[in-house]
Amino acid sequence: MNEDRISDLPEALLLQILSMLPVKDVVTTSVLSKPWRSLWKLVPTLKFDYENNQSEDETYSEIVCRLLLSNKAPFLESLHLGFRFGECRSVEVGMWIGIAYARHVRDLVLHVESVKGSFIFPTGLYNCETLESLTLRSWVLVDVPSPACLKSLRTLRLENVDYKYDDSVYNLLSGCPNLENLVVYRGNLLEVETFTIAVPSLQRLTIYDDNDGEYCTGYVINAPSLKYLKIDGFKALESCLIENAPELVEATIMNVSKIINEKLLETLTSVKRLSLALSPLELKFSCNNYSGHLLL
Question: In which domain, by residue range, is 286 found?
């Protein structure tokens, strides 16, 4: 006789286990036994990916909407949405995210696959009182014509997305007054001339830049609360200016071009731990005020 020990586990633990599974697998558990029929509706983390949510009876959009509306968790802890550009309309994606915002979602990940264009993240969705973590990944166009309103946002990841104007970067970041962690991945795109990061609350900043274009002038960083900085790339940029980072504790600089080596390092005089991986290594900056450890 097979004993069902899993069903005897506390509900909180079962929900935690189900939260680690894709939505399709979570819903499948409803056929296990009577106690499981409604358990899947209480899972606070929903992960949708396009490949594994196909049906002959429903479109991907209909599946996402139905399962979002079926969810009865007290609040939506996390929503991961993956879809193909062109397969879902902006109004549909806006509806999914709108439902999540109404459910007080805390973590939102939007991943877009595309071969022909970028998905425009709806402007109205840059306003949410509860969102604490936001990830925009791949073919997403960040178009923010006026300052965003993401008062609770603590972590923002911008991974190989497009930006309509330099102001879109500024308007997005200026609308995150409590942002602590910013991660930026940028590829070979020419959409922003100067990427300005002016965030008074920012404590951690990571930038990966593989841009080898000719027209990107660089970055300006104004983050008076910044403690940890990692820069990797900058092979073709003309400058990276750190205007204000007096609280900087640790910095890691890797694979930056000769052009910005000297100027960048001159702005790191307050850092306590500095790790460098530069090739060829050409350093010309004063160490008179440097009291920490220099790791080469």
Answer: 190-296
- Tens digit of pLDDT for each residue in 125-145? 899 999 999 999 888 888 898
* Angle subtended at Cα 59 by Cα 53 and Cα 63, rounded to the nearest 5 degrees: 55
Question: Within this chain, do residues 127 and 198 fall inside the same structural domain, yes or no?
Answer: no
The owner of tokens 């002038």 is 217
Where is average pLDDT lowest: 29-38, 99-108, 174-183? 29-38
Helix (H) or strand (E) holding 70: helix 60-70
pLDDT digits (tens, 9 = 90+) for 225-244: 999 999 887 766 667 778 88
Sign of CA dihedral 233, 239, 245, 250: positive
CA dihedral 237, 116, 95, 55 (to 10 degrees): -130
Cβ neighbourhood burial of 126 (10 Å; 0-12, 13-18, 19+):
buried
Domain contains 268: yes
pLDDT at 288: 46
**H-helix segments, 71-226:** 90-102, 166-174
**Is 212 in the same domain as 238?**
yes
Tell whether 294 and 216 lie within a shared domain: yes
Residue 279 lies in a domain: yes
117 with 201, same domain: the answer is no
Cα(296)–Cα(277) distance, rounded to whole angstroms?
6
Are 175 and 194 part of one and the same domain? no
Q: Are residues 50 and 173 in the same domain?
A: yes
**Confidence (pTM):** 0.82
User: Residue 236: how many CB atoms within 10 A of its CB?
Assistant: 18
- Count other Cβ atoms within 10 Å, centred on residue 57: 6
